[in-house]
Amino acid sequence: MSTLKVAIAGATGYAGEELIRILLQHPSIQLTHLAASAKWDRPVALADVFPRFAGQLDLSVESLDPARLASSCDVAFLALPHGVSMDVVPILLKAGRRIVDLGSDFRLRDSAAYAQWYGKPHTHPELLAEAVYGIPELSKEAIARARLVANPGCYATSIILALAPLLRAKLVEREWMVVDAKSGLTGAGRKAEPSMMFSEMNENLWPYKVNHHQHTPEVEQALAPFAGAGGVSLCFVPHVVPMNRGILSTMYLRLAKTATWDDVHATYRDFYREAPFVRLRPQNQWPKIHDVAGTNYCDLAWTVDQAKRGLIVTAAIDNLLKGAAGQAVQNLNVMAGWPETTGLCA
Fold first, then answer.
1. Residues 291 and 331 in one domain
2. What's the DSSP call for residue 186?
3. What is the CA radius of gyration of the chain?
């Protein structure tokens, strides 16, 4: 197994920290460069930013310089704020580098949709068609060939993994699917906001961006090929809860035909037969955040109400791993032709 030189831009955020941790234990990766935002005024030793890495990696975190980033690596991970990656990616591609972008800039294929949901125009819309939406369980062959992989959003990952097999099997109606999702605080990023203060969050819970969260269009886009003509219609209500990490998404669906718990199990089993990070829970055993925290797994559980033609599915992931850094490394493994689990087994 050959070794790849890897750089991380956005190394000081929660996802960046997880990328460093994972890649330090990856047998075929050499970390060569760490960058923060362009406002980082001087190089700072990694151990001064994250003392947990003292004695493990002798690199400094530097200000983001796209040309220097390109010269330092074979593959770059971009864990940058929304709107920053779109101007870095063209420089990396011109230099012949491959990219896994953990931000939102290349998830949507339609530049008008990007402007609508993220409030700014896309500066390089010509690259949107090239970017591969990176859920390995759905698009492994395309990811393997890609120069640019758009790592999915955390909520989106949990929802898509739960719904894609059901839609392909035509088990559920696609016109009205309700998703109730809960996320830990790290999903908001490593920044100071009054609403994220301990005194505001402790013993508290609230919905936000109700039916207008920016992950909605990427979910609908990713599920459209499985749903057939007309695509899907999603009602999505995210909530923030007072825990550090994890996402629990519960989906309320209407069956399109008669099905039992075993029928749903067979659908998921066949779809994810070769997916090492999707786990199907036994009947009446529902996932908890503690079951997936610190891992790259997505746990799925469901129940069928035949009298009401109802199907309820719950998906649990770690938002920083399967929802961000873990899936990014899984994508890199696919791009490099390595086993998906390399460096990721809990």
1. no
2. G
3. 20
For residue 162, what pLDDT band results from cuts at 50, 70 and 90?
very high
Residue (of 79, 74, 92, 62) closest to 30 by Cα position? 74
- Please tell me what DSSP assigns to residue 22: H
Q: What is the pLDDT of residue 188?
A: 60
Residues linked to residue 236 through DSSP beta bridges, in sequence order: 179
Q: Scanning the structure block, which residue is given the tokens 């999707």? A: 278
Contact in structure between 249 and 132 (CB atoms under 8 Å): no
Question: Residue by residue, what is the 3-state secondary structure of 281-344?
Answer: CCCCCCCCHHHHCCCCCEEEEEEEEHHHCEEEEEEEECCCCCCCHHHHHHHHHHHHCCCCCCCC
Length reported for the chain = 346
pLDDT on residue 195: 64
Active-site choice (154, 235, 298, 345): 154
Q: Are residues 160 and 118 in the same domain?
A: no
pLDDT digits (tens, 9 = 90+) for 298-326: 999 999 998 999 999 999 999 999 999 99
Same domain for 257 and 140? no
- Integer Cα distance of 324 and 21 in angstroms: 13
The Cα angle at residue 148 between residues 143 and 152, in degrees rounded to 5: 70
Locate all alpha helices (DSSP H) within 153-214, ordered by sequence.
154-168, 198-201
Same domain, 32 and 168: no
| Residue 345, in any domain of the structure | no
313: containing domain: 155-317
The reply to whether 274 and 142 lie within a common domain is no
Q: Assess whether pLDDT exceeds 80 at residue 85.
A: yes
Report the alpha-carbon distance of residue 28 to residue 31 in Å, rounded.
Answer: 10
Q: How far apart are CA 28 and CA 160, in angstroms?
A: 30
In a shared domain, residues 209 and 63: no
Does a structural domain hold residue 72? yes
- The burial class, CB within 10 Å (0-12 / 13-18 / 19+), for 310 is middle
**8 has pLDDT over 60:** yes
Q: Which long-range contacts (CB under 8 A, 24 or more apart) does 265-270 make?
A: 267/165, 267/166, 267/169, 267/171, 268/165, 268/300, 270/165
* 113 and 135 share one domain: yes
According to the model, what pLDDT value does residue 77 have? 98
Q: Identify whether 73 is a catalytic site residue.
A: no
Mean pLDDT of the chain: 93
